[in-house]
Amino acid sequence: MRIDQNLSRKQLPLQFNKMLSFIDTFNIKPGITIFLIIFLDTALLPLLYPRVHIIWIITMPLICFIHIWALRILFKNPYTVQFEAILFTGFLGTVASIIHLVTFLKMSYYDLNIGATYFYVTSVTIYTLIVVLLVIYYIKSYSNIRDNKRKAGKNVVKYSSLIVIAPALGYVIAQIVISKSENLTNIMMLAVFAFFSIINAYLAVKFIYKYFFMKKNKHLIHLQEPTKKIKKEFQEKGIVIK
User: Fold this and answer.
1) SS3 for 203?
2) Residues 178, 187: contact at Cβ < 8 Å?
3) How far is CA 99 from the centre of its chain?
């Protein structure tokens, strides 16, 4: 994970440079707001209603935590939360992925009356396998610069195929198990929640890895700095950029 300190950013592959770059400061607040609404809040209604006590106990602390954290960042100066925004995005992806997975399982049981144990075991196993593969992909991709130049393209194709196939596979399993059901809307919703669970898992792994990768290679990162005019305004307000 740590890059040779004798290397400069210009000597690194494009993929490494992207991994060492911050989110644009002007995109932090709108990005967090859109991400929170589209990738998390859209799943809350079918998750929380009708109410299932055990699901509320598991998910409400996560939902409250990530919303409070989002509010903190939204009220902070974007130049002061550049590292934090990356870590937050990773945790938001984690929470959103879990929420969509739980919603998928809840709808399967309560709305479609799927009682087959192997359906739930298979679904969770596929999800876990995808997360593990994503972690392995990022570790391998950024562990060796030379190998990255040679194999990055092949790895992207290989793992991207798995990510794309997995939701489809889950959908096929759902189709087989509930073949006698006529509730097509709920079936399609299952496919949507499965898809978003995987997409959010990908974002979670990517940004959490990105955060630690940048922390390990601080000598290669460059904080985005405001213009002289904005910096002067910050100084007058007593704002320190870290």
Assistant:
1) helix
2) yes
3) 12
Q: Give backbone dihedrals phi and psi of 24, rounded to 5 degrees, phi first.
A: -55, 130
Cα gap 180→109, rounded to integer Å: 15
The Cα–Cα gap between 8 and 13 comes to 11
Retrieve residue 192's tokens. Answer: 């949507």
41/63 Cα distance (integer angstroms): 9
Residues of the chain falling short of pLDDT 50: 149-150, 152-154, 156-157, 180
The tens digit of pLDDT for each residue in 136-161 reads 999 888 877 765 544 544 454 455 55
Lookup: tokens for 100: 């969509």
Q: Can you tell me the distance from the alpha carbon of 128 to that of 157, in angstroms, rounded to the nearest whole number?
A: 20
Burial readout 36-72 (b: 16 or more C-beta within 10 A, e: otherwise): beebbebbeebbbeeebeebeeebeebbeebeebbee
Please tell me what DSSP assigns to residue 109.
I
SS3 of 144, please?
coil
Task: Copy the structure tokens of residue 124.
Answer: 């969770």
The CA distances from residue 35 to 5, 54, 61, 146, 203, in Å, are: 35, 26, 19, 34, 11
Spatial distance between the Cα atoms of 123 and 55, rounded to a whole number of angstroms: 18
User: Structure tokens of 48?
Assistant: 């929380």
